Structures
1.
Amino acid sequence: MSNLMTGAEMVVRALQDQGVDTIFGYPGGAVLPIYDALFHQDQIKHVLVRHEQGAAHAAEGYARSSGKVGVLLVTSGPGATNTITGLTDALMDSIPLICITGQVPTHLIGSDAFQECDTVGITRHCTKHNYLVRQVEDLARILHEAFYVAQNGRPGPVVIDIPKDVQFALGAYLLPDRIEHKTYKPKLDGDADKIAQAVAMMATARRPIFYTGGGVVNSGLEASSLLRELAGLTGFPVTSTLMGLGAFPASDKQWIGMLGMHGTFEANNAMHDCDLMIAVGARFDDRITGRLDAFSPGSKKIHIDIDPSSINKNVKIDLGIVGDCSHVLRQLVDAYRAQGKQPDAGALARWWAQIDKWRARRSLSFKASDTVIKPQYAVQRLYELTKSRDVYITTEVGQHQMWAAQHYHFDEPNRWMTSGGLGTMGYGLPAAIGAQMAHPQALVIDIAGEASILMNIQEMSTALQYRLPVKIFILNNEYMGMVRQWQELLHGGRYSESYSEALPDFVKLAEAYGAHGIRCSDPADLDAAIMEMIDIPRPVIFDCIVDKTENCLPMIPSGKAHNEMIMPDEDADMGTMIDAPGKMLV
Amino acid sequence: MNAPSAPSAPLSPYSSALGKSNIEVHTLSVLVDNEPGVLARVVGLFSGRGYNIESLTVAEVAHAEHLSRITIVTSGTPEAIEQIGHQLERLVPIHKVTDLTLRGGAVERELAMIKVAGKGACRDEALRLADAFRARVIDASIESFVFELTGNVGKIDQFIDLMRPIGLVEVARTGVAAISRGPNPI
């Protein structure tokens, strides 16, 4: 086969050679040659979304649930600008994406041509890297290089902007194995002396904790299994960020729940009181640390991260280990075994006894009701009725997201897709579509809110077109619930613009799209309704009418420390709990 | 150039507990691929993350290898400057970031062109001072000079201050270029 081909053919060929089987996109004038090249092949399946933001989140859901790179293809101008939220989301959550954008022909660049925008200029701040391909001779190298950059080091989105004349031009194709990157070579193994120091610190710890994050999931299945091995060897408690859920099994007795603003009492107090914190692939985000000058004041901190800029960024670290989680965890497991010492068993037992006391506070409890569905109860029932299945969960952003994180439990990585860093409402439905494309036989559920779901509801058409039986489980409280909760907390209960007026009838909306609609408002009917949702082999919108004013607790109020949580049994005077500096925060 | 952030800004409970020590000025040398947009990536990083740029110079230094060298003078706490280095290293087309101040023993120079206008005694005084500073006259008219002066930042600042009462018209400065002492590259 000749290696001379058009730029458009080269794009498709490179995707094939990179092992891409699914892409998400929307055609337009500046990418027609690439769509024509797609037409002539059947190796890559193209999923036509209804909005380019949907393509980006679908590619994210595909990537996160499969461990592969997500790919999207959009046109110039508005096609490119509509992807910005998704690209930023992927940058914040370290999701490997390739976004191919069409561009006006090179001789028109800079002339304010129809559907022209400065795509590389606009996306420079929301991508890991981006390229404008000015000549077809560079195209094959850039395509393969982009896959390398997206996946290696800390993963992230990469944009390749291809002018239309470059898509038509003839050039020589290069195979991926002939590409080597000249500058970008991330460090994978931790320094041996630092591994030795870490193991020595672990062997003498009295109140240790593993604080793990999305980096463990991104590093691959082996990292999760090594984390389990290291936790088993040491007997240390494990907590995780929102992004890391599933890397360590929630059913394990060493699991103490998620930490952070809506984390468990035991996880946050253990973080506060520990004497050794081992952060693995986590980045000390403000949702995690709470008040920084009161963050875990008495602990030594080890931080394992592939991104050197994450170490010492927000919190002073005693021992920073730059490397890939799976490599460093392997080194730690081997070194810990080899040195043969165990931490003081008595001290560790006392630490666990303390953690069990915190656990006994039952911080995720809520007042049950038999007249109204409590949102936590809805997620608990959803979990109980689906946990034995091959299930993938996505969420939108808000209270429902936190309730899902608290009450749906994961034993495996890559099963939980949520917008953590950017907090993008509208993420869940397209992400569910992406996850379902990657796992056609699985049960994929978007746990949603009635406000978030409307932000990308148009993707219902995509789900129908490709017969993707995604389930949208809406916790409908008729409020932008987290906004309402913060208004109760910070603004005297003045619910400015947070009530969802003029909501659609979600059952009829489902039917209008050709999907199935279910509504449930009585706790007694909930199990049967959830079973109906699971059994229908089509997309379903489940309108779960829940308690309108339930607050998401426990909570570290803004500006407070880990040991100053609002507990579910003390939310009566929430409006007085945050001081003036705290009110300034987000 | 960014103004240094206001010291009176209230410290948020989320603002880094690391940011409490003194502000230092550092010179960073950044070796980059000379490709379109690379300067925008560097400058955008500084503006996007709220870092300061005191001066910035850039030019190609190895044509065949497509390498450019960017010299950035920045200010911040030692922790912030360490962050700046790591953030720069994350940019894909960057080969190497060196903190010349941390490394010690670097030579720093800046070139300035200074236009001074005046008549009579002013002209004599300007020429005398220029001679003392080893500034060269690179343009002259009946009522003006343009001086070229190379040196460290302080020397140039001092010369400009002296020219001000004599008839300073305008100044063009290149910003600092810097290189380490001794036989080895950075």
2.
Amino acid sequence: MSSNRAQAATNAESPGAERTSPGSFLADRLPGLETLDRLTCRIISFGFPLLTLTIITGSTWAQAAWGRWWGWDPKETASLVAWLVYAAYLHGRVRRGWQGGPAAAFAVLGFLAILFCYAGVNLLPGLHSYGGQLVREDGHLLLGGFRGVPGSEAALTKAFMIAYLLAALGYLGFTVSRNATAGRIATSLAWAGFLLLTGILASRTYRLGRLPLTSGYDFALCFVWGVAAAYLVAEKVLRSRALGAFVLPVILVLSMYAYLFFPSKDSAPLMPALQNRFWLHVHVSVAVVAYGALALSCATAVMYFVKRRLAAPGEPRASV
Amino acid sequence: MHQLTARSAGWRYGPARGVVLSLEKKQTKVEIGMGDILAAAWRSLQSTQTTVYLLVALALANLVGILVPQGAAPQAYLEKYGLLLGALVIKAGLHHVFSSTWYLLLLALLIVSAGACARRIWRLGRALAGGPSLSLLQRRLGEERSPRVTATLSGPPQMVGDELVGALRRRHYRVEATSDESGALWTVGRKYRWAGYGIVFSHLAIFAIALGALLGVWPGLALDKMIQITEGDTYTDARGDFDFSLRLNSFALEYYPDNTTVKAYKSDVSVLEGEREVKRQVVLVNYPLSYRHIRFYQSSWGIGGFSVKVTPPRGEPEVLRFPVQTAECPEHHAPLYEVPPAAAVQFTADRQTAVVAKGFTPDAEEKDGEVVGTRWAAPAHPAAQITLVTGFNRGGDHSFHDAGWLKLAKPVKVGDYQIELLTVRYYSGLNARRDFGVPLVWLGFLGLAVGLMATFYFKPHSLVAAVAPSGSGARVTMAAFEKGGAGEEKWQARTYPVIAQILEQLPPPSAGEGKGGSKGRDEDVK
């Protein structure tokens, strides 16, 4: 089924094709459906063991801190939901029929579960509640700002966000125009932004004397770093900038989330439960890489849907 | 190797559906016994499709467990969701999803289904580890559509073959070499065979974790108990879950420089066997006290009581101890404390004077001349509301002296008496845990981590090469195989360096003859 669609896409690419609607125009500029499908699977295959390791290390730590390796805390449970969704994806995939649409849908669902585990759970009470305080005692709404960090770091953060905004535009421009210069500029901007972010994290590490992994803002920055790193690695490995237009916006949204929803940008002092440096570092570092990879797989799955929709607008949905 | 293709075809089947359908057909005509149903159910559990359904169902169940707050009093659900929905939540057990029968059943089904698939998983693991057989590889290499590298090299076939084996060994391949009747030398190199069993380990791990979890809640073996000890007191377990005692020597809160964030909860605990102290340790979160297979984890703290010093006009000062207990108040986030009525009145030793404690707050502030408690739970500015009653045992003409809110270390003169809030005593909440399942869970975690990493990061694959005489030299045809097929890049990364290594070892090709490292999907080179 998907190969039929791929066929339709190649037809559209041929010079004689009449169809030049903006949809098919954009669809031509995306990788093939099969490629996207395989890519999603490859990235999930990379991320799933890491997600498992995240849960395992968290569990081991919980045993050390609280004496129970599993306590059905909302964050634990949400991570299990994500794990189960990805496990369903991988099991479904073993049946060869399970490709394309359903697989991509599970990839997206899995990442939604990750996002829920990451941010949604902060709205619920639990052991992992590190959410920022958005409303002051007097009811005044607190959004954005750079309270609690030195001016130099605030400036770096602004530069980083501008770099990524421009990089996102660059990738979008590249995807539409296929202009190699636009692509190179976008990549340079993405690297510049990534280095700036690494610098910010390094300066926070220096100020704290440990990795900045404790406040909500800390982890939001690390999450952004993870996705950015995963993207840059993917661009290098795949030698393609095709994912950029889809991943960079995700990075932008996450950075805006970090900027807006954590009015205090300071690192929180370590709560007693977090005072276990070994597990703190292992658990959160693995989580950062896993989240980064899985964000990427979500982007490729979304690309799959976009491509399918644009390439064959009139075609009835094939059941797989 | 026919087995592998046959088995991988087996993954596609949906025996569950087929069986259920035929059952439905039968139902109208033939009686079906319990055995048939069980057999059909067992076959259903063996299908990957069922596994996917179970995983999704479990994910949804967990989602419910997150969205519906767990473990509150039934009344709370009626208030939150309204009568009808609230009653539904309670009836369906959604307020304790993770201990409800249907959730545990779902979990058990998933584990049983893993068991039902055990044989298939084992075979798959073995097939993955074994790799395709030589005969299949030979056939596949001959197939037009399989990608392969062909190179004509100068040098006798035997020498090229030896170099090939050497190159593969240097790249950590397990090599098997043979020749056929046409004189061609066949070499098969296999790598990461062990990783094939990763799938077996990761599934076995599920059983270990499940068994460990079961042991962790097994009545009689497992212990999970909250105990509270007030400073200076000794706790002896009334139910006899352990026969030693614990004394809380002191409890302390340590703050960060901002004075609001707690840095540490420190319980100085002694273990007593009879009267003898056998162990003493400061228990912190992350640093439990371990004694005789039981671990005590710092889990909560609070104020257990306070003491008041009364100094009569004549005679020695006396210290009276009052306990406090928390009272939940929905408006307050911090606990409210009250003195239990039964212990609110305490007499001095001569029974002439009574101290009545009416209230207690860990953090008092004055508002419009009145003392009120803040929301702050830590005893920063503790205060106790005290009334002194004097003149007992003197024929009933006792008198009341309201001392108001006493503050720490601020003695107050009441009549001829001096009275002072002397100390606030903490209690420490320790969670006593004995869990023999933990090592099994660790083993499961290890199996899961190693198994998944083996499965996804190390693909067992085979390289097959045929070396045949060609003119004065030898022609090498080589291909790489992996279950599910490897991508182009991976494929090249595996074959090209081997060819390059052989080339390095061989004498340079004579003019116009050799050409290495070209890939032909449908035709080989020269």
3.
Amino acid sequence: MRRSLAAAALAALLCVPAAGQSMSPMRGQVASFDDAFAVRVFPANPYGHRIRIAVRVYDQEFRPVAARIAPNDFMLGADASRPVLVVVPFDGAATRKVRICTESVPFPGEQTQIKAQICGKFLGQRRF
Amino acid sequence: MESKPVLAALAASCLAVPAGAANVTFEGSVTPTCTLTVNSNGIMKVSANLQSLSSHNAGGQAGVVQLTTTGGVQVSVDPVTDADLKPSADTSATTWTPTYAAAGAHTISETGSATTLSAPGTSTVSVHLAGTKAGSDRFAAGDYSATVVVLCEE
């Protein structure tokens, strides 16, 4: 368990964030010595008010992936950004491509709501 | 006769490149980024024949999203399969069609397909949603609500 967390933390450090985006980075390649790889993304709130943000992980066909996301749903203040750690299992594969998406509905409860979804593509490669 | 120009050239070269000078190079890299800011949601209005509930109809209004990117991303809208909210009296099928158009740094004619944005800049994206009923089906009295997902991905 400790080894797994250490590998995940090390892998997460390899993804360098950029400030002031809705989600950054939008691409990444991570090498992992464990049965999961980790990516740290930085969702940002460009609005002048608090919004609820969800972080989700999908495969290439937009099917949900059972990844650990911490935190996966949260409120984010105006013009703020925060780190989110995503740990994706390889599920026995040597490589795995996933989409990590930041989703928000900034003005809920109206007739035609618009959900903004920013997705990045990430490749995990398992080292043996 | 020729020594003067040679000496002048040597002097000039000494002034231009002092001993011990070195070039300092800078490198940088910009990765693809995308920011979507929803400025306003849309409004759908029903048509006179009650078979269309659309932001294109009279009194309707497109949703407005501001998109800022470095380029190297793709924008699209996800299919809408059903309304989030509809009157209980509406039991017939509705076909929902989300579309979008963009103006500004990127010019996109109204489409429902994905568009690759290679240029950087900021654009205003207009998002439309149209629900249609076929045959003798009609929209029922009551409140409707639907969600259009605007996707920007690398």
